[in-house]
Records
---
Amino acid sequence: MIQPDNFACHNVHLETERLKLRPFKDADFDTAVPFYRDPEFLNAIEESPPDEPVTKEYLKKAGKFMRDSGFLFAIVEKANGRAIGEVCLQWMNLERAKIAGEKIMRLPIAIWDKTLWGKGYGKEVVRCLMAHAFGKLEIDRFCPVDVPVDNVRSQALWRSLGLTVSREADGGKMLDFEITRIEYEKIN
Ligand SMILES: CC(C)(COP(=O)(O)OP(=O)(O)OC[C@H]1O[C@@H](n2cnc3c(N)ncnc32)[C@H](O)[C@@H]1OP(=O)(O)O)[C@@H](O)C(=O)NCCC(=O)NCCS
């Protein structure tokens, strides 16, 4: 049964060594808003930052889209129960990355608090969700897309887990990454 505060409308709960992934709640948007007003954070995720300061309603609109096309999670530190980011295991919605007959997922991810970047949290989350996607959801291909070319951190994350660049997009401003089931099984 879906609880009223379960914005994500799923009941998948996952765990890594230091983190929990739980369905995203409405209240998590309130936690996220101040981080979405940090230019360094916004620059990492958006090609061109929004003109107006980010509001809860703005984030909810994007959140609804993700919720309707996949599994939206809050990333929670086990040590203190604090929500520190969002991640969505999302069915591929970009025509350029679809392949007829294949189940393909993408993975928008953001750790909101930049003091927590580079501590291995991103890798823990993605490793866990790749295992879930290939193991439980039986996907054929995992394809994080629209990674800004100047987002070195994000690119390092995908490369460290065995993904490679599949194409450039938006006139070379964005990169799409991928790993196939066969490649994933070879290294896991
Ligand atoms: C991108 C993001 C999810 C990565 O998570 P993270 O916890 O910071 O990254 P990790 O510490 O798990 O590092 C993953 C790999 O990248 C490497 N890495 C991390 N920061 C790096 C940096 N600044 N430069 C080069 N490599 C870096 C790590 O060494 C690690 O590789 P290794 O295991 O081979 O050593 C996180 O930084 C984030 O949320 N950033 C803001 C939002 C964002 O950019 N989202 C992605 C949009 S496409």
---
Amino acid sequence: MTTTFQERGRAEGAVHVALSRCRAQPLTPGPFPAKRARGDTKERGQMQSNIDLKGLRIAVTGGTSGLGLALVKTLRTRGARVAFVARSAASVKRVARETTACGVLGDVGRKEDIDSIALEVTWNLGGLDVLINNASSLGPTPLALLADTEGEDFLEALAVNLIGPFRLTKALFGALASSAREGRGAVVVNISSDAAVTAYPGWGAYGASKAALRHLTAIWAEEAKAEGVKFLSLDPGDMDTPLHALAVPDADPTTLKRPEDAANEIVASLLDALQAGAPLALRA
Ligand SMILES: NC(=O)c1ccc[n+]([C@@H]2O[C@H](COP(=O)([O-])OP(=O)(O)OC[C@H]3O[C@@H](n4cnc5c(N)ncnc54)[C@H](OP(=O)(O)O)[C@@H]3O)[C@@H](O)[C@H]2O)c1
């Protein structure tokens, strides 16, 4: 069963943080930034990095490491109300304490966890404006050619990278549509990869799952126009994270992007989408 970190902690007697602490993040509605920044994504990331996000309610899956952790930190620093999801109780506890974001224990690849993740997110944030499907599985590690990939490893990549985002988006769609109706705006950001569009040998399970997620994003963007819910598929670029180190152990980390920079670019893109923007952006 999935619970907030605070609830799980209480049940296990490991921590004693009142659940209300999750709800203690500011509830002030908007205002969202009035001006749209111009320029490329990196410039926009820099230009928009000072914009106050107070009142924006955002859920991030995979919020305890790499890009997800950078997103949780920057969003909290800028005043957003944030809930994040991950599987490791110790990591969720640490990040919840450090960022005062609301930690939710759960596995997005497990069907049984999805409804409780969605309930915890909406209850703690009082609704939802932005969902960032960021948690990801590489499939087989070390990476393997398709001919050497076990079906179970392929299924794991599909469960976490495709079916999980599908189920969670579906479970949260009502909350997002309600936010759009209220004029707050609503955006789903699906974190993609260049492996979604380039056939890298050894990245079969991961690449196929990301390609499917990208297409799912495009279709959902069409279907959700009437409800005013926007969808983005964004490739953060090669970043210095544990996932990258697992996939490419001999990569030189100094050549890789900082997850903090990618996080700022993603925030800039989602602000664009919230303010006006096209109903769909595929940048992967
Ligand atoms: N790093 C790169 O170079 C790169 C390049 C292109 C795209 N991307 C994409 O960027 C995103 C972030 O990658 P990253 O490199 O930051 O990864 P990372 O450092 O490995 O972090 C992954 C996060 O997701 C959580 N997570 C993993 N599986 C989960 C599950 N089944 N349910 C819930 N949470 C789960 C992890 O915590 P727990 O293990 O505790 O659950 C952790 O918080 C991914 O979508 C990835 O595909 C990364």
---
Amino acid sequence: MLSFSALSVVATLAFSAFTSAMPLDPTSAVSTVGNLLPVPALPVGVPALKRDTPRSVAAIVADVTVQVTPYVEQLKYINKQNATLEVIEPVVTNIKGVFASAVVEVQGLMGLSADVILAPVTGTVAVTVAELAQIIAGLLTLVFEVVGVVLGVVDSSILSCVTYLLVSLAELVGCLVCAIVMLVDGILANLVATIVPLIGAIIPIILQLNVLIVIKIFGIAL
Ligand SMILES: *[C@@H]1O[C@H](CO)[C@@H](O)[C@H](O)[C@H]1NC(C)=O
């Protein structure tokens, strides 16, 4: 488990990236790390927060996976001919939008009971650390694998633009993980340590992008 001070450093990194990467109206974004610790005021205009019953972390992450899958599918089969910025950018922007809403929704769970936060996707028994790690690792793998595909296909003339775009996506993914880790800290032990062995396949892509937030959260050695 990360120490609290290490977590604070990561959180600061994550949420400065979050506010700069946030595709939504910046006036409605949660703008400081400080807003994380107490229950943040509900930003207006974020549909995810208008639910009567807050969704659990597992339900949010599972839904992000469902929502990003069609976008991932669009990027999965790009080739040299159609791997252009015009094709890639809107798809990545859509994926970022899904993650940004999820970050806000997870932050909205701060201060709620463990029953709510750890509710399962279906059924009534609270998720275990292994189950939640599996759901999160599945989402990370889905996203970073396709990031790897895109990086491998794009022409060198647009590689730096595309890399920049993918780094901004990866930072938002890191924000979501960071928000989850902070939220479950104290109610679910060893989440990070349980995720790490499940994401071995995507670590080279994370290192290639050099996404500091993700590297720090998972303590990936450079
Ligand atoms: C790019 O072309 C391939 C091969 O024709 C196709 O399968 C894929 O769907 C195309 N992707 C996009 C995003 O247009």
